[in-house]
Design a protein that fits this description.
The structure holds 2 protein chains of 2 kinds. Chain A contains 20 helices and 15 strands. By secondary structure, chain A is an alpha/beta fold. In chain A, the strands form 3 sheets. In chain A, strands 10-9-8-11-12-13-14-15 form an 8-stranded mixed beta sheet, sandwiched between helices. In chain A, strands 3-2-1-4-5 form a 5-stranded parallel beta sheet, with helices on both faces. In chain A, strands 6-7 form a two-stranded antiparallel ribbon. By secondary structure, chain B is an all-alpha fold. Chain B is built from 2 helices and no strands. In chain B, helix 1 runs antiparallel to helix 2. The termini of chain B are far apart. The chains are: A alpha/beta, B mainly alpha. At the A-B interface, helix 3, helix 4 and helix 5 of A face helix 1 and helix 2 of B.
């Protein structure tokens, strides 16, 4: 069996794919596992020992004809475009020639969906984003549909990205699937032997991230480090503290280093390969950083993290996994209290309880951070849990009417005989129904503006419509009607609950359908 | 053409041409592998303009 895993995002997402790859190897011990990533991020596959072959996509090389011509002309010529298409086609055909039995696309871009479809043979099973045979987006599995509807910054998903990757791949991951390549890391000059850690406490601090909006600037970092040194001196810890700063040279250059009797600072920013950073993480007692690749390395190495998180990222999706990790959330980096952060880090070093409020990773999940109607709604829609109470009579009434209106339109089409599907009368009816669906879509947008908290339901509804399989007129009609019926049932349920002024806790969402 | 603005304009023009080619292929012969190759190249070029595909899986653009 030949399996291809596509991961075309950045370093962090590649590391978050490792547990899924590990679980896939357990599920398919004899399979030939291949992995496709961008050549720029290929270094994050080093140590992924379950993979038989890595394909690296050389984007710059594939676009070379275009870039070359751009140096000389202001317009792309037909021959240059043909050359680019041919070059790209040759590269993709080589991968296609492998004739995969299963393709798992763990990227969520339009490009990856086209590529997945291109690489698909008649007998290939596909999971994750792909395309229909006429080029439309296709979401073949529940995991991909969930991702499309509910995942991303500004949305309310609280499932970890690594779990979502596993769901899409059709495997479950357990803590043992988070594995670091220890033998390989031990070869790095930055790997510290176990005995030396007894004389000092090691903290690896990543002072950067893949994007500036995810991390602290150098001044607040310098302040946090200074306060860590001070708090550590004040603590009852008798070991020395070794602080290893990792990041790019630029990230590390603006940080002035604290000098204390018990604290040694090693700024190795710009002096490490990716695998060396992994080795440093593996030989640390604690990792400190924002939303970045180093946090994911720590998850694989099972090293607890102290993670700074901001509203620009979602720690539920990409936060640390190792047991006991803690997340300090501030809406913006500027709002971070450096002294408090340092105190919390030293408390972690002492294995002491936090001052709080912090989010803690415990028993393979994050402690509750804040209640969320949207998250409860997602759990009701996808896990069959109780629907949260929605008390906005005006929006609710519009919601019921909108779904009812759509259902009425679909009912009017149901009387059409299969034999007259292509008749002029029916074509005219279908056209007017499509216009009605556009109106429904417009109403949905208006409702979302009025009550943003019901967005998960509206996105679920729209995503399920995308998922209606191609087929004859009647099958498409019935599948569409089923989605409208489910949505209508939820809205009616909410209305009834409101009228009873109580939520029947025992009612299960699935019973509604 | 080292100027990024000129390069962006060049790529946007290339995108328009590619889109027209893909549409012509679809109109005449349906959605074929040739059309799909063009669509892929289009998306690859779009990424150069907006860097959307190399972001994390959970970034706003995907």
């Amino acid at each position: 069996m030949k399996i291809l895993i596509l991961q075309l995002a950045r370093l962090g997402d590649i590391y978050l794919t490792w547990p899924t790859v590990h679980a896939l190897r357990k599920k398919f011990p004899g399979a030939n596992l291949q992995f496709l990533c961008r050549s720029y991020y290929q270094s994050a596959t080093v140590g992924m020992s379950q993979i038989d072959k890595v394909w690296a996509m050389p984007t710059a090389l594939l676009l070379e004809p275009l870039f070359k011509e751009a140096d000389q002309n202001s317009m792309a010529s037909e021959s240059c475009l043909s050359e680019s298409i041919a070059k790209f086609g040759d590269w993709a055909e080589k991968i296609k020639a492998e004739r995969f039995d299963l393709i798992i696309n763990l990227s969520f871009s339009p490009f990856s969906s086209y590529l997945t479809h291109f690489l698909t043979e008649n007998e290939t099973q596909v999971r994750g984003y792909t395309r229909t045979n006429d080029g439309y987006l296709s979401l073949p599995d529940d995991g991909a549909a969930y991702f499309y509807a509910q995942v991303g910054v500004g949305r309310s998903n609280r499932f970890h990205l690594s779990d979502l990757f596993a769901e899409i791949a059709g495997v479950g991951i357990v803590p043992d699937d988070w594995v670091s390549p220890l033998a390989l890391l031990q070869q790095s000059p930055f790997f510290k032997k176990g005995e030396s850690s007894e004389s000092s406490f090691r903290i690896c601090v990543h002072v950067g991230a893949s994007a500036s909006y995810k991390c602290l600037r150098s001044e607040p970092w310098a302040q946090v480090l200074k306060f860590i040194a001070e708090e550590y001196e004040k603590s009852n810890l008798d070991k020395a503290l070794d602080l290893f700063l990792v990041g790019t040279q630029a990230e590390g250059s603006g940080i002035s280093l604290p000098e204390n009797r018990n604290v040694r600072v090693h700024n190795v920013c710009g002096k490490t390969q990716l695998i060396d950073v992994f080795a440093l993480v593996q030989s640390s007692d604690l990792v400190v950083g924002c939303d970045s690749v180093v946090i994911h390395m720590a998850s694989l190495a099972k090293i607890p993290c102290f993670n700074f998180s901001f509203s620009t990222v979602n720690f539920y999706e990409t936060g640390p996994i190792a047991e006991g990790s803690r997340v300090l959330y501030s809406e913006f980096p500027e709002m971070l209290n450096s002294r408090r952060a340092a105190k919390e880090i030293v408390l972690m070093a002492q294995s002491a309880s936090s001052y709080g409020p912090l989010v803690t990773r415990f028993e393979n999940k994050f402690s509750d951070f804040s209640p969320s109607f949207e998250w409860d709604l997602i759990r009701a829609l996808y896990l069959g849990e109780t629907f949260p109470k929605f008390q906005n009579p005006k929006v609710l009434s519009l919601l019921v009417d909108t779904f009812h209106f759509g259902l009425q339109q679909l009912d009017s089409l149901e009387v059409i005989d299969q034999n007259e599907v292509r008749s002029e009368r029916v074509n005219s009816m279908k056209k007017s129904t499509l216009q009605v669906f556009d109106q429904v879509s417009g109403l949905m947008k208006a409702l979302e503006t009025q009550a943003p908290e019901i967005s998960p339901l509206l996105r679920w509804f729209q995503t399920e419509l995308i998922r209606v399989p191609q087929g004859d007129f009647r099958s498409v009609l019935l599948a569409t009607k089923e989605i409208y019926s489910k949505s209508h049932a939820i809205a009616v349920y909410w209305r009834e609950v409101n009228s009873q002024d109580q939520i029947q806790r025992s009612e299960n969402a699935r019973d509604l359908f | 053409m080292s100027n990024p603005e000129n390069l962006e304009r060049f790529l946007e023009e290339a995108l328009k041409k590619l889109n027209r080619s893909a549409e012509q292929i679809v109109e005449t012969g349906g959605y074929s592998q040739e059309a799909e190759k063009i669509r892929m190249l289009e998306e690859l070029i779009k990424e150069q303009l907006h860097h959307e595909n190399t972001h994390s899986a959970v970034s706003q653009t995907r």
